[in-house]
Amino acid sequence: MQPKPTALKILDVVSIIVLAISTYLALFFAPTELVMGQVQRVFYFHIGTAWVGLLGFVLAAVSGVIYLVTKDMKWDRFEVAAVEVSTMFFFLTIVLGSIWARPAWNTWWTWDPRLTTAAVTELIYIAYFMLRQGIDDPEKRARFGAVYTLLGGISAPITFMVIRLFRSIHPVVVGAANANQDKLSMTGDMKIAFFFALFAFTIIFIDLIWHRVRLSGLEEKVEQLKLKVSM
Amino acid sequence: MDTIPDTSSYMTAGFIVTFVTMGIYVLSLYIRNQNLKRDVDTLESLQAEKPKSKK
Question: What is the ipTM, given to two decimal places?
Fold first, then answer.
């Protein structure tokens, strides 16, 4: 196992710092929203986790395509890392949305198009790990995983676009398609907290992906050693 | 509606869930990393012993 690179150590520290700053901005810097009250503060993390969640699913699909073309296992390692980290972040997105929905919509959950597509997307990527667990041959596992993430990747843009295409109670944060849609309006300080949360979660996402890729490298080494020992 | 609704308990729950989930994930990465390192050490020592046992 190669020692932890200095850049990764620096990224670990930067991740903790940006998370702390983002939490401060969300909790204390941003003003209290007049209609929803304090619960609106989870919105900054809700959007931050949603952004990296969907980004990771798209990146996994892209790395799946690159793996299918090059057959280089490093792309399989990246794909697994992207899916795992994004599944964790997207789980948070759904939970934070549900916590926000309780006082805002008077329910924890409703089968709205956005919530439904988000839940389906999360289940697709949980099933991805079940699929991989069931295949012993590393190359076959990587090939099946690549095709799966390529097909699963379609769910990410669908989840993003669904509130712009169908009638939904979920507010549109970026680019409302028409004037009838419920659009969030933010003050200057809210925008600072919002954009910093996007930046912070992107840094944390890169840091966790890097750690997970290194872990996959170790898993591969263990598999190879097991084969050698058993021969 | 003039007064801001008190939804601070939901906000607290949201931030706790975020930090606990991220903490559990980082811990799982650390534990898996330690277990795999131990596996590598064990397998490497087994591999080193293998030619000796064949003789």
Answer: 0.89
Instruction: Report, in angstroms and rounded to the nearest whole number, the Rg of chain A calculated over CA atoms.
Output: 20
Contacts of A227 in chain B (CB under 8 A): none
CB contact at 8 A, A155 and A124: yes
Question: Tens digits of per-residue pLDDT, A45-55?
Answer: 999 999 999 99
- Write out chain B residues lying below 8 Å of A225, CB-based: 39-40, 43-44, 47
Tokens of A195: 């954009």
Asked if the Cβ–Cβ distance from A103 to B10 is below 8 Å, we say yes
What's the rounded Cα separation, in Å, for the pair A197 and A44? 6
From CA A79, how far away is CA A125, in angstroms rounded? 12
Residues 6+ away with beta carbon under 8 Å from A76 = A63, A67, A141, A142, A145, A146, A216
Give the global pTM.
0.90
d(CA A77, CA A210): 10
Mutate to test the interface with A, among B16, B25, B27 (most CBs of A within 10 A): B25
Sketch the domain layout of chain A as residue ranges: 8-28+36-230
